[in-house]
Write a structure and sequence with these properties.
Protein name: Pyridoxal phosphate homeostasis protein
Number of helices: 9
Pfam families: Ala_racemase_N (PF01168)
Keywords: Pyridoxal phosphate
Number of domains: 1
Strand content: 15-25%
CATH architecture: Alpha-Beta Barrel
Radius of gyration: 17 Å
Order of helices and strands: HEHEHEHEHEHEHEHEH
Helix content: 40-55%
Largest sheet: 8 strands, parallel
Strand order of the largest sheet: 7-6-5-4-3-2-1-8
CATH topology: TIM Barrel
Organism: Pseudoalteromonas fenneropenaei
Bound molecules: pyridoxal-5'-phosphate
Family: Belongs to the pyridoxal phosphate-binding protein YggS/PROSC family.
Length: about 230
């Protein structure tokens, strides 16, 4: 049987190979997407050395975060769509939120983030392929949303996230990733703390890295297929 450690090792190898070929010269982080997967598998990944995990479903995630409450250095990223009535537990339990796509959610997360905790690290989700089935703001919404977030004491703007359309057309995908990279470079010029462009999943890691990703979100390749 292939273990989580072996799968993680090959995911990091795949990432290193992609990064070597990339015209962009900076480290790319790997977020292990553990949604729907049990705590034992997260523990196995942690034992291998993985520290950052992505979750999409609030209640399931909170149960896991509680389970690992005494585990040092573990970092939780919320990557799913945010309903405004579910923003409080996200604000209270996560370190990062990658899926902020509207002002209302940013304001709520800021108000609900406990003052005893460090600011939430925030990415703006962009629907770069204008896919009606996906959340995310349009590129022209980035600037006003970034301005609002940068004025929120309990939020720390770190960059952008996107989920692109699943397509076999690699050139089209690369084009979307490059458009995201251009939005990211524009944002970074204005906000010095911006350092994260989250894009690329199990199916499109290489193209995303070639397009300038600084964080890939890998689920299936590490933890296996989801039900
Ligand atoms: C589920 C999910 C992933 C992981 O996708 P895989 O194809 O399993 O690697 C990445 N990003 C987001 C936002 C997700 O919801």
């Amino acid at each position: 049987m292939v273990t989580i450690a072996e799968r993680l090792r090959s995911a990091y190898q795949r990432l290193a190979t992609a990064a070597e070929k990339s015209p962009h010269n900076f480290p790319v982080r790997l977020l292990a997407v553990s949604k729907t997967k049990p705590a034992e598998l997260i523990q196995a990944a942690y034992d291998f050395g993985q520290r950052s995990f992505g979750e999409s479903y609030v209640q399931e995630a909170i149960d896991k975060i509680r389970h690992f409450a005494n585990t040092p250095d573990i970092e939780w990223h919320f990557i799913g769509p945010i309903q405004s009535n579910k923003s409080r537990p996200i604000a209270e339990h996560f370190h990062w939120v990658q899926s902020v796509d509207r002002e209302k959610i940013a304001k709520r997360l800021n108000e609900q983030r406990p003052a005893s905790l460090p600011p939430l690290q925030v990415l703006i989700q962009v629907n770069i392929s204008a896919d009606p089935a996906k959340s995310g703001c349009m590129p022209e919404d980035i600037a006003p949303l970034a301005k609002l977030i940068s004025n929120c004491a309990q939020l720390n703007l770190r960059g952008l996230m996107t989920i692109t359309e699943q397509t076999d057309d690699e050139a089209k995908q690369l084009y979307y990733f490059q458009q995201m990279r251009a939005c990211f470079d524009t944002l970074r010029a204005q906000y010095p703390e911006v350092d994260t462009l989250s894009m690329g999943m199990s199916g499109d890691l290489e193209t995303a890295v070639a397009g300038g990703s600084t964080m890939v979100r890998i689920g299936t390749d590490i933890f296996g297929q989801r039900q």
